UniProtKB/TrEMBL annotation, chain A:
Transmembrane annotation, as ranges: 39-62, 228-257, 277-299, 305-327, 353-374, 425-446
MF terms in GO: phosphate transmembrane transporter activity
Main location per the UniProt record: membrane
SUPFAM superfamilies reported in the protein's UniProt record: MetI-like
GO cellular component terms attached to this protein's record: plasma membrane
KW Cell membrane (keyword) present: yes
Name of the featured protein: Phosphate transport system permease protein PstA
Phylogenetic classification of the source organism: Bacteria, Pseudomonadati, Pseudomonadota, Alphaproteobacteria, Rhodobacterales
Native species: Paracoccus salipaludis
TrEMBL record, chain B:
ABC transmembrane type-1 domain boundaries: 164-381
SUPFAM superfamilies, A to Z: MetI-like
GO biological process: phosphate ion transport
Keyword Cell inner membrane: yes
Protein name in the entry: Phosphate transport system permease protein
Annotated keywords: Cell inner membrane, Cell membrane, Membrane, Phosphate transport, Transmembrane, Transmembrane helix, Transport
CDD domains: TM_PBP2
Principal subcellular localisation of the protein: membrane
Gene3D superfamilies the UniProt entry points to: MetI-like (1.10.3720.10)
InterPro entries for this protein: MetI-like, MetI-like_sf, Phosphate_PstC, PstC_N
GO CC annotations, alphabetized: plasma membrane
GO molecular function: phosphate transmembrane transporter activity
Classification of source organism: Bacteria, Pseudomonadati, Pseudomonadota, Alphaproteobacteria, Rhodobacterales
Keyword S-adenosyl-L-methionine annotated: no
Length: 454, 393
């Protein structure tokens, strides 16, 4: 006490120069102010780096993936020769089934050869192989399906768009250049020239590719036909299961912990468990799913039901935490009023508190679902990487059918040998991000619309 | 009848039970519901719950434990019995509301117990399968072996150390990226930025947290890996592959930035304003206040946040699966491909597995190691953060 009042000479004052004005910076102040500016700049740089990383990430994904939504088709006259597709000659679809896609490939090769001749396209070194690899194997299959569906087409000349191979497709997306075509075993410079000539004639068109979103996955040698249909359906089924299970269970658990739980060991154990489960690595949940749901209960591998159950357990802690926050935000006066007019605690909860907390609960649930939608690692372990080319049937049986999921499909495509699948993987991520964006916007909308300040 | 249709039939009976219970209570009260102890709806719910719950539980149990075929139809009989019994109990004096509320409370407790059940299931499945693994493979060789060469033909070496090395090395690089950036961003946002800047920047950084890890994985594989290889690794002669510890570490660091920044933001904001005001009043600059007053006060909390981020980094899977490679080795060069515990769990458990071979079961031992490591870090971090919060409350 006395120290503060006794006047004491400043220890540095004898040596310090006499300062005339506060407005003139001495050397030490300059140094300190420079340190201040530096420190501030570090903060700006840190934020700049974080945002630059985000922008760069999104930019590369969109740059690489947007072309997956477009596909190049050729429009040339194709003669459906009767002796090839219908050797028996009786237009019986059952008999025509025997002609495999190979036969239709021949039709397309002939059509392309005829087209080259007719238009007087002269290309040095254009081999038969260049012609036969020009179209996608999917193009042959499409043609076969069209003819089998309508046998009247046999013997006519049709002009339907035919899907080109991934290399030809890549020539119009900047993925394949003249130089890279020369080095690539799956295409050639002659094929490149042919594609350019056809484009000049207006017979090659690149158009929006709905098949990428709707069709099934395809085998290694036709990346151009691979689609997301099964993956989207699988993800949808799983989200349905997660929503139906985790919302009621999460809300029930939160209500109990927030309103009814006595303060005892059991309650403490539950609380500790929830906060720890929220931080358990997701891959551990995959091990759990494999050991319990697949090996012990005997549910089929790669089924949406198993994925849905695993993701439910994974999202429950998040949903419980946000639901409890929403319940806590309802002011006690509401509870007191209801209890005061004779409602039971249950009635207070379900008739008054829960409806008022619902917007917050829904927001938390949607964000939990968005998290679950992007989760990959646990699904790998329960076998959702399987190559699935048939759509799962409608629920409830469809929950047991093998399916894929959006993020797993991305992983799957990165593991393929053909680099054309990388475009597909980035495209799939765009679809995934679009779903996430939509869910987050919905959550923000709900929060804005129903937000209440008490 | 398949279990699914039995379930539907049970639910239909429950709806019927609700209607019957409700109308019976009204009839017994002679139309004057004031004579009832509970409102008619509760009588209805009481009947419905007693019809559906025991039957559905039996059905679920039958499915879970592979019970013989006659059990499922028995559920239907149980539902009918429940319907009859609870209907006969429906009288004006019957305390239907209390009965219903007891059941609902029970359901709430069961739902809350699912958290414990999940932890228990995780621990049990990991421990049991790991025990089987250690019966086939000596634990010393697993924990201290320096060679990882699984071969399904037999004679495989399953030493964990190379995987642990890769895991820790990648996590370290990730933290070296994420902690300075996240921390400085948090400091700037809490102590310098205007509310307007903050309202734009904070959500933008948090977008990074909402992006699924598979997206980061693809980014590492397609963009960052080749970039680091062409611009740093090859010119310096350090490596020639796109997959490397550095690739995975840098991208994982990106992913952790929002994690570190939002946690430290909370913690820095929790430092009482009086400490700042005191320091500023003494004539220190803003940065001196932060460095010498705010950060030391917030240090325990920040350490907790870093530990949480470390646990997240150790358990991260997709980024390392796509970015780090699959070569198990111990090397100090960050531009070489190495592998982690999580990569090997995925590697050993995808595809067709033989659950009697040590090569598959080793994944469970790896999972147990991972679980124990992350759990330990989490508990430590939560303990530190809680201690710190109490200090200023």
């Amino acid at each position: 006490m006395t120290d503060a009042t006794t006047p004491r000479p400043h220890p540095a004052s004898p040596a310090a120069p006499v300062r005339r004005s506060l407005l003139i910076e001495d050397a030490r102040t300059k140094r300190r102010n420079a340190a201040e500016r530096r420190f501030r700049a570090y903060g700006v740089v840190a934020i700049g780096l974080a945002i630059a990383a985000l922008v760069f990430l999104l930019f590369t994904i969109f740059r690489d993936g947007s072309s997956a939504f477009f596909q190049t088709y050729a429009r040339i006259p194709v003669a459906i020769e009767a002796q090839v597709v219908d050797p028996a000659g009786n237009r019986d679809p059952a008999e025509m089934q025997k002609v495999l896609t190979m036969g239709y490939g021949k039709l397309l090769d002939n059509a392309l050869a005829a087209y080259v001749e007719e238009n007087g396209i002269q290309i040095e070194g254009l081999s038969e192989r260049d012609l036969s690899t020009f179209f996608s194997a999917q193009g042959r299959a499409d043609l076969r399906n069209a003819v089998l569906a309508d046998p009247a087409l046999v013997g006519t000349v049709i002009e339907a768009p035919v899907m080109t191979s991934s290399r030809v497709d890549g020539m119009f997306k900047g993925r394949v250049s003249r130089d890279s075509a020369a080095r690539d075993a799956k295409t050639s410079v002659a094929q490149y020239e042919l594609a350019m000539a056809m484009e000049k004639q207006g017979d090659l068109q690149t158009r929006f590719n709905w098949d990428f979103v709707t069709s099934t996955d395809s085998s290694d040698n036709r990346p151009e036909a691979a689609g997301l249909g099964v993956a989207i359906l699988g993800s949808l089924y799983m989200m349905l299961i997660v929503l139906v299970l985790s919302l009621p269970i999460g809300v029930a658990a939160s209500i109990y912990l927030e309103e009814f739980a006595p303060k005892n060991r059991l309650t403490d154990a539950i609380e500790v468990n929830i906060s720890n489960l929220a931080a358990v690595p997701s891959i551990v949940f995959g091990i759990l799913g494999l050991a319990v749901f697949v090996n012990f209960v005997g549910l089929p591998r790669s089924a949406p039901i198993v994925g849905g159950l695993v993701l439910t357990l994974l999202t429950l802690p998040t949903i419980i935490i946000s639901t409890r926050a929403a319940l806590k935000a309802v002011p006690p006066s509401i509870r007191d009023a209801a209890l005061g007019v004779g409602a039971s605690r249950m009635q207070t909860m379900f008739h008054h508190v829960l409806p008022l907390a619902m917007p917050g609960i829904l927001t938390g649930t949607i964000l939990g679902l968005a998290h679950a939608l992007g989760e990959t690692a646990p699904l790998l372990l329960i076998g959702m990487v399987a190559f699935v080319t048939t759509y799962p049937s409608a629920p409830p049986e469809g929950f047991l059918d093998p399916a894929s999921a959006l993020p797993v499909q991305v992983y799957n495509w990165t593991q393929r040998a053909d680099p054309a699948f990388f475009e597909r993987a980035s495209g799939a991520i765009i679809v995934l991000l679009a779903f996430l964006l939509a869910m987050n916007l919905l959550a923000i909308y709900l929060r804005r619309k129903f937000e209440r300040r008490w | 009848m398949s279990p699914f249709w039995i379930m539907i039939a049970t639910l239909a009976l429950a709806v019927l039970g609700y209607l019957l219970g409700r109308s019976r209570s009204i009839r017994l009260a002679g139309g004057d519901t004031r004579a009832l102890h509970s409102r008619p709806g509760y009588h209805g719910w009481n009947v419905a719950l007693f019809t559906a719950l025991p039957a559905l539980l039996l059905l679920a149990g039958a499915r879970l434990f592979h019970a013989p075929g006659w059990v499922a139809p028995a559920a239907l009989v149980l539902a009918l019995a429940g319907l009859g019994l609870s209907l006969s109990r429906t009288t004006p004096q019957f305390r239907a509301r209390n009965s219903v509320e007891r059941v609902i409370r029970g359901v709430l407790v069961v739902c809350a117990l699912i958290a414990i059940a999940t932890t228990l299931a995780i621990v049990l499945s990991l421990v049991f399968e790991s025990a089987r693994f250690f019966q086939m493979y000596p634990w010393q060789d697993f924990f201290f072996g320096t060679e990882w060469t699984p071969s399904f033909g037999g004679g495989s070496k399953l030493g964990m150390l190379p995987l642990l090395w890769g895991t820790l090395y990648i996590s370290l690089i990730a933290l070296l990226v994420a902690v300075p950036i996240g921390l400085y961003a948090a400091i700037y946002m809490s102590d310098y930025a205007s509310p307007r800047v903050r309202s734009v920047v904070k959500p933008a950084i948090e977008v990074l947290a909402g992006i699924p890890t598979i997206v980061y994985g693809l980014f590492a594989l397609v963009t960052v890996g080749p970039l680091l290889r062409d611009w740093i690794a090859q010119p310096l002669g350090l490596g020639s592959g796109g997959s490397s510890v550095m690739t995975a570490g840098v991208v994982m660091g990106m992913m952790l930035i929002p994690f570190v920044s939002s946690l430290s933001d909370d913690i820095i904001n929790a430092v009482p304003q009086s400490l700042r005001d005191g320091s500023l009043a003494m004539g220190s600059t803003h940065s001196e206040t932060i460095r010498q007053v705010v950060l030391p006060a917030a240090l325990p909390g920040i350490v907790g946040a870093i530990l949480l981020a470390a646990s997240r980094a150790i358990g991260e899977t997709m980024i390392v699966v796509l970015g780090a490679g699959a070569m198990a080795k111990i090397s100090p060069n960050p531009f070489e491909a190495m592998t982690t515990i999580t990569v090997k769990i995925v590697g050993q458990l995808t595809g067709d597995n033989d659950f009697a071979s040590p090569e598959t079961l080793v994944a469970f031992a790896l999972g147990l190691t991972l679980f124990v490591m992350t759990l330990g870090l989490n508990i430590l971090a939560l303990y530190i953060v809680r201690k710190y919060r109490e200090q200023y409350e």
